[in-house]
Write a structure and sequence with these properties.
There is one protein chain. The relative contact order is 0.09. It contains ten helices and eight strands. With 342 residues, it is an alpha+beta fold. It folds into two domains: 69-138, Alba-like domain (Translation Initiation Factor IF3); 147-341, Phosphate transport system protein phou homolog 2, domain 2 (Methane Monooxygenase Hydroxylase, Chain G, domain 1). The protein is flat.
């Protein structure tokens, strides 16, 4: 079932010259005018897109007020992973109401298990529950979940999670240090929500106007939050590795290398994107180009050392590999920053 409110129609119109000026006019399709209750002298919104196309949106047009509903039929009520994946897919796909039905009765602990499943899906709430049917509803509108604010929040969380990694690298006893679980959980939430909102805005163009977004914003923000999410994943992998194996004595300059990536390049990339700073984006990309050879030099020193079989050196290899991945994600963010500034 399509989420698009109207069938897509392709038509051709001839441009007409207006008076003696260079202005050109065209007539609007009668069906479209009638569909949106337009009359002479009314004002419409014109959006000039990055690819040179033009979008015409009636100011009075409202998104479909009826909730978009879907249904999930459960055969195995104990397969919670299958249920989680199906709910998540429908959530990102833009459905507002999800009905879960089962021939068998749900177990008494289903609410608690569902609440855990819904935790990363910002805005989804359990609105009704009986032995054979569960009603889940999105309680956040497209307009209320401001994408700019969500992007800023996920950026701040990524910097905070980087801070957790930096503290881990400095700590002598890492066994009891905070592991950034809260930051990671919230990054998950914002990531899913932003992807969902972007999909909704593409399917409902009026939302672009209401949220003050362009199609180019949607593309760049989607790329940005995906790379922020990947940076956070790499941070979590570093933290888990340090918790498990600890950090051996560093005589190779690995820790300063990782700190430079996390404390400088991630922050500079984020700033370049959020503030459309082309100079910072270009400077950061140039600086990152010099770090990849440095990583290889460090790896060669580790390989040549007498202690290269020490188990804890696995931690250093993880640090180097994850830092290299983070540099790649930062480059993608800087390239998105340059596109935004064009």
């Amino acid at each position: 079932m399509s989420l698009h409110p109207y069938p897509i129609m392709s038509q051709q119109r001839k441009l007409i010259k207006w008076g003696s000026s260079e202005t050109l006019i065209l007539s609007l399709p009668r069906k479209w005018v009638k569909q949106n209750n337009l009359t002479a002298d009314q004002v419409v919104n014109l959006q000039i897109n990055q690819d040179g196309t033009l979008t015409i949106i009636p100011r009075e047009l409202q998104p479909d007020k009826e909730d978009l509903q879907t249904e999930i039929k459960i055969k195995d009520i104990d397969d919670m992973e299958n249920l989680r994946l199906r709910i998540l897919t429908n959530f990102i796909d833009g459905w507002d109401v999800i009905r879960i039905k089962s021939v068998e009765e749900f177990n008494p602990d289903i609410r608690r298990e569902l609440e855990k499943i819904l935790e990363p899906m910002m805005g989804l709430e359990i609105m009704g529950l009986n032995p054979s049917e569960i009603l889940i509803k999105n309680v956040m509108s497209v307009e209320s979940s401001n994408v700019y604010n969500l992007v800023k929040m996920i950026s701040d969380l990524a910097i905070e999670l980087n801070g957790v990694v930096l503290k881990r690298l400095d700590a002598k006893d890492t066994s009891s240090e905070y592991d950034g679980a809260s930051e990671w959980e919230n990054i998950n939430k914002y990531h899913y929500r932003i992807i969902r909102e972007h999909r909704k805005t593409l399917l409902h163009p009026i939302a672009l106007v209401k949220m003050n977004l362009t199609l180019q914003d949607v593309v760049d923000f989607s790329s940005y939050v995906t790379n922020i999410f990947k940076i956070a994943e790499a941070d979590r992998y570093i933290i888990d590795t340090i918790k498990k194996h600890g950090i051996p004595s560093d005589s190779f300059g690995i820790t300063p290398f990782v700190k430079k990536v996390l404390d400088t390049h991630v922050r500079d990339s984020i700033d370049a994107f959020l503030f459309k700073n082309t100079q910072k984006a270009i400077k950061t990309i140039k600086s990152m180009n010099g770090l990849h050879p440095k990583k290889r030099d460090i790896e060669n020193k580790v390989d040549a050392s007498e202690s290269n079989t020490h188990p804890k050196l696995l931690t250093f290899q993880v640090l180097l590999d994850m830092s290299s991945k983070i540099l790649d994600y930062c480059e993608e963010i800087c390239l998105a920053a340059l596109r935004r500034a064009i």
